[in-house]
């Protein structure tokens, strides 16, 4: 047996790596994220975006629609709402009736992403008609490249926006085709949201000295989606819904509608524990103990997406720590919430179960803290030193919004205090007057005040 082959399985230093490059949406390259901790308890709630039930899938869905010419963007979105039989639909970036191309339609919960997509960059392919022939093609090519950078624009006469001078940035532009005999040119533009291509064509004509106007326009990119990313027509949407209604085949509808996570693939990702998801849905900040994984290159005040371990988007947030601080710090605020996406109570409530929260509840019960959990005269000194209230102004990781919230809450409390003081004064007056019921005395005082006001008004009229 000395010459026999050795079939023993030898231990390896590390396990086989998982290829996550083909995982969908926010889970793509999941293994490349920095690991803060792997210690958490998975909760059997929620599901991966592609495995949601059809009703939930559509409620959290977006459509990359190829808008047809002639109907307005609002008409198209209203038709989709009627076809899919949903409560809400919205679109990111209005297209003029004659314009075709990418129109991102958000359904129900996905409408919370409309604002973020409206401000994203756009790309257009435009046909410009010049009013006279040019000497050569190079003149138009140079003029197109000249109109880049920050440009002054006034919206055209036919527009729903106030005609006010404003600055819009053209990131890149290039001439694709030119027919000097027909005076037609085709050029591609990458620009800031809110750029008027009609105005750009007029400026192009002025720059060439022959005049010009926009003949035709198509949007080829809106935010993260291009016309090559599962672009569907109105007929596709109608046929997919008809197929489901008549044959109960979901596959066509699932191809037309895509999960909202599709729009968020360009954001830096932060993975949170299942136990902290519902607190975030109720507006809580993400703290370091709720952090599982995070992406490289995150900077303070950068917009990030908070996601679950299943790949669901929880919220759009503003980072309060850089990647380096997240890796090293053991306490503090990681991110404050900008827009919650996930519906409340999708995951169970898990806050208020920790040792500090339990102690806080006990101290409120014993009267050592007020009913809001704030310090009072009975609060022990060791608690005052050790406990950090992240909602109090001046503590680490507190944003300006919390200070504003505190200011609003105190201003709301003042009139209530005044009302309470006036009520107490009325009660004391009632007690001093005799054995009369204080409530009845207060009612009498109000009636007397009203009668006095009426008498004053009548005197003024006389």
What would CATH call the homologous superfamily of the largest domain?
Answer: Pseudouridine synthase
CATH topology of the largest domain: Pseudouridine synthase
Q: What value does the Rg take, in angstroms?
A: 31 Å
Q: What CATH architecture label of the largest domain applies? A: 2-Layer Sandwich
Fraction of residues in H or I helices: 25-40%
Biased composition (Basic residues): 441-462
Domain Dyskerin-like: 19-77
Biased composition (Acidic residues): 422-435
Domain PUA: 268-342
Describe, in plain words, how this protein is organized in 3D:
With 462 residues, this protein is of the alpha+beta class. The protein folds into four domains: 25-41 and 267-340, Archaeosine Trna-guanine Transglycosylase, Chain: A, domain 4; 50-117 and 227-260, Pseudouridine synthase; 121-222, Pseudouridine synthase (2-Layer Sandwich), CATH 3.30.2350; 401-461. The chain has helices spanning 54-59, 73-84, 114-118, 137-146, 197-208, 234-247, 251-256, 274-281, 323-328, 355-366, 381-386, 400-433, 438-461; strands at 34-35, 61-67, 89-92, 100-107, 122-130, 149-153, 166-179, 184-191, 212-222, 225-226, 258-259, 268-272, 286-287, 291-294, 303-307, 313-319, 333-340. Strands 2, 3, 4, 5, 6, 7, 8, 9, 10 and 11 form a ten-stranded mixed β-sheet that branches. It has a seven-stranded mixed β-sheet with strand order 1-14-12-15-16-17-13. Helix 12 crosses helix 13. The N and C termini lie far apart (127 Å). One of its GO terms (biological process) is snRNA pseudouridine synthesis. InterPro entries: Dyskerin-like, PsdUridine_synth_cat_dom_sf, PsdUridine_synth_N, PUA, PUA-like_sf, PUA_sf, tRNA_PsdUridine_synth_B_fam, TruB_C. Belongs to the pseudouridine synthase TruB family.
């Amino acid at each position: 047996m000395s010459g026999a082959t050795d079939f023993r399985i030898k231990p390896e230093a590390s396990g086989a790596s998982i290829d996550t490059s083909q995982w969908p949406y926010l889970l793509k390259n999941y293994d490349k994220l920095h690991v803060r901790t792997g210690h958490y308890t998975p909760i059997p709630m929620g599901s991966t975006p592609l495995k949601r039930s059809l009703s939930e899938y559509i409620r959290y869905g977006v459509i990359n629609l190829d808008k047809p010419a002639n109907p307005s963007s609002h008409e198209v979105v209203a038709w989709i709402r009627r076809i899919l039989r949903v409560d809400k639909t919205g679109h990111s970036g209005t297209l003029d009736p004659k314009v075709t191309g990418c129109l991102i339609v958000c359904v129900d919960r996905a409408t919370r992403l409309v604002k973020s997509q409206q401000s994203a960059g756009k790309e257009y392919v435009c046909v410009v008609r010049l009013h006279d022939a040019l000497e050569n093609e190079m003149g138009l090519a140079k003029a197109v490249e000249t109109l880049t950078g920050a440009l002054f624009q006034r919206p055209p006469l036919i527009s729903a926006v106030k005609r006010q001078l404003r600055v819009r940035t053209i990131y890149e532009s290039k001439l694709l085709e030119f027919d000097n005999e027909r005076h037609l040119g085709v050029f591609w533009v990458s620009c800031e949201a809110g750029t008027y291509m009609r105005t750009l064509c007029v400026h192009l004509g002025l720059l060439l000295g022959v005049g010009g106007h926009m003949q035709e326009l198509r949007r080829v990119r809106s935010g993260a989606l291009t016309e090559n990313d599962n672009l569907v027509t109105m007929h596709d949407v109608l046929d997919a819904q008809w197929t489901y209604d008549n044959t109960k085949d979901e596959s066509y509808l699932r191809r037309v509608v895509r999960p909202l996570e599709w729009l968020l693939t360009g954001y830096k990702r932060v993975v949170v524990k299942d136990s902290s998801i519902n607190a975030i849905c109720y507006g809580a900040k993400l703290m370091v103990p709720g952090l599982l994984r995070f992406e490289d290159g995150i900077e303070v005040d950068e917009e990030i997406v908070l996601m679950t371990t299943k790949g669901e988007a929880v919220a759009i947030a503003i980072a309060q720590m850089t990647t380096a601080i997240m890796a090293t710090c053991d306490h503090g605020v990681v991110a404050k919430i900008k827009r919650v996406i996930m519906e409340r109570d999708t995951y169970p409530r898990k806050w208020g179960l920790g040792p500090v929260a339990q102690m806080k509840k006990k101290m409120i019960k014993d009267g050592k803290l007020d009913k809001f959990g704030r310090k009072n005269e009975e609060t022990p000194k060791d608690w005052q030193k050790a406990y950090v209230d992240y909602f109090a102004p001046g503590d680490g990781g507190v944003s300006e919004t919390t200070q504003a919230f505190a200011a609003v809450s105190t201003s709301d409390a003042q009139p209530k205090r005044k009302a309470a003081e006036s009520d107490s004064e009325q009660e004391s007056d009632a007690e001093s007057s005799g054995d009369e019921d204080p409530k009845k005395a207060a009612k009498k005082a109000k009636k007397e005040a009203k009668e006095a006001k009426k008498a004053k008004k009548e005197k003024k009229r006389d």
